[in-house]
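Single-chain item
Fold in token form
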Amino acid sequence: MTNPLAKIEDSLQTTKIQTSQEPKIQEKEITPTETVNLTLGFVLEDKLCRAYFQQYLREQFSYENMGFYYAVQKYRHLETDEMRNSFGKKMFDTYISTESMQEININSEMKKKINQTIENEGYTKTLFDESMDHIMGILETHSFPRFKQSQHYELLLKDLELIQTGKTPHGPETQRDQAFNSIYTMKQQLSSKLNDYAQEFETLDPNENSQQENTVMKEIRRIYVQIRDVEMAIAKDLQKKQTQWNYEQILSDVFKNASQQYYKIYSQYFKIFTQIEPNIESLVDQKHPNNAFKRITKKYLCDIKCVLSLPIDELMKFENLLFKLVESTSEDHPDIHELKQFTQEFHEFVLFSAQERVLQSKIVESNLYLFKNRKLLKEGIGKIIKYAQDPSLNGVSFQLLLFEDCLCWAVSETRDQSTPTEDQETAKKIKFIVDEILPINLVWIKQGIESLKFLGESVFQITSPGIELAVSIPGTSEWITEIAAVVAKSCGLDSRDVFSSPERKGTFYQPDRSRYIGTLKDGKFHGDAKIIYPNGSVFEGNFVENIKSGPAKLTFPTGDILTANWENDFPSGLAKITYKSGTVISGNYSDGFISGPGKILFCDGSVYEGDFDKNKMNGKGTLIYSNGDKYQGEFKNNFRHGQGEFHERDNQIYNGDWAYDKREGNGKQIYSNGNVYDGGWRKDLPHGKGIYISKTGSKYAGHWNLGQKSGFGRLDYSETKYYEGEWVENLKSGKGILYNGTIHFNGEWDDDLPNGFGTLTIFPDSKQEKSKENEKENENENENENQNENNQNENQNENQNQNQNENQNENNQNQKENQNKNKKPPIDISKDFYIQKVLGNFKNGFPDGDNITIEIRNKLKIRAQMKMGKLNQNCTITFWNGTQIEAYFKLDTLDITKPISFLIPRELDKIFAIDQQNETKAPPGISFWLLPPKDPLLNLI
């Protein structure tokens, strides 16, 4: 029978691709004095931590991400294009292809890039780098935090405590270490023994032994030397593995590299051993006390048969150790696939060799050495009528042998269907070869088979698990009676009950080395039973004529349990998988997977109810976390993916698009403090266009980049204050406008402050915030008034020229009156003198640089050099009436050591220099505008 377990296990476990030339990944190992910081990076490098993390990921159906991580690490170290092409293709088929069972969680855009790169450039070193970064993000933000809340993490911490105290941890890899050491030790010891025996057979004395004996010993020595060389080569390669031993170590390459020569040499040995085995005793000739056989038995205190059968015994031992190595190697181990393949191949070789040995040495005519210690109860020769398992034997002569504990038959060596069987004496001259040996308690016999009645009463049927044989043999009744009696004695039954009670309890070893324990009926598995598989898995359930049927339980080597209803030898319908960690998944089981509606109860108390596909959350569902968080929406491969709504326990709500457990696309987030964001998302952060409104009333509408304002956007602080322009990483940067009701800045920004060229306009109060139209009207009225006055002055001058005889005193009096009319009213500095506009370069929010223009309403215009908002060096002040002052300042303080000059519009040819060393005074009407030498200009205005 085939092992159906493989299909089920493949659906629940994931395997990892490998290459025979895998570069070694650098590893760390915790020492007793080391303080451990369990970051994701450390866990991936430390073999003990990694083993626990791997086991957790397998149970969460997401080990493919970690497998991809290690595959990329190895891929990056491959040196040649040929190696990358070969390994890269395996990686693509295993982790990238949509048809793969281990497809990793990357979006279609990444897959498209990988396909394009392969098509245009081939398998480059950086082919999988972007996908690798994405998977690392998933491990960092999703898998690793949950691992730290699992039972596996608690066990890991206990192991780390043992290490800190200098004790040996109980890590998952311990059994594999022991299996490896057992194989390595066995190979070393076998090589040493074979070498010793070969040396003993090398010393031959023709006078002590016959020519035949010398020939046998030469042949034994030759084959022992060849076996020794093969075993020593394996032991040497294993020694290299031991010096670099780690849990991820590949061992199958050692065995596979030696397999061809190994099978060849051992096949020759089986042939030789089969030939000399019947005559072993005669090889120890008493006439020659010093022959090689006697020397060996005396020196090593062992029987000569033990010496000659040493390779056979070690072969069987090696097979058992291989099975233990496979059982102790986890399903996600990089060597598990190749190791299983070699172990199965080796097992088949052992079976084949044993069968060959039977075919060569168990000829009935040579007294069946196999049965020499058994009592033969009955024998006879007949014909096979119908053999269901091998129709080619139909009609072939066979010999039937009945012993106290087994029923055996052998077919004619030539398989000649024309061989007569009626004459038993003649038939005994035929050479027969043993074909089957059946335990007597598992033998059923029937007579009067409906389909074979036409052949007469001499035909009866022999049935046993996996065997259904109809035979014709002389003395049929006697045979049936004898077989029934032996079966009854073996099973503790009355011989009459053998036919009326077809059901029996028994144990049957199948060809795949699995063990059936339970009820059998008419040679078939039928009823409640248990099957123990070679890898340690156990099936417990019901059989109907060799087929698993009905409710049953399958326990895996990992401790995980599948409970389901079996139909046609496979689980189907409602099923439940209980993992060792405590996580339980239930749903409809079909084609090796749970698909359709289902439920998961995680070990941490989280609950998922919804759609499944291939044992993973796929489709629509609801996931309620153990901390009270709740997600309702679409899933893909166990990730929140598609449209969904997420309620967190602190009253945060997100409704929108998801991609691989992260907010991605468009969505609306209501934060616990009442703030709201509505717009684009990427990697769980606002990204693209979006609007953010805070409960205080501020509102930002614009572009985002991974959670930060970036690009163009407008931030309304309040109804009267806003910034509209460019942003970089949440800071105003680039061109923008800021207005807060009294200040208006339009220009360049950097690091959240005006930096670069810009215009600053200030409106300190409502009285001074006049429209430009009103200001122009006032200016026009003043200009008209001045013009009229000037015209009057001109007319008066003309009259003076025409009336030269008028009294000079009257002219002086007129000029004095005109001057009084032109005189401006006193200026109120607090109301009329404020900075209305600053134009020029800014630095960190202050005017800074050359050629800064400051407009002080319509009264003053300053053009100056400034440093951090203060007048510095050369400064030109122009008044409303055209008067100009040029002076030097140091940080808003007038520099009295430098000359001050001013220009009066009506007397353009008169320029006066003023300093404190002389008492030259300004013309009348100007002294008011002279600035005190130590008062800052900005403080004054």
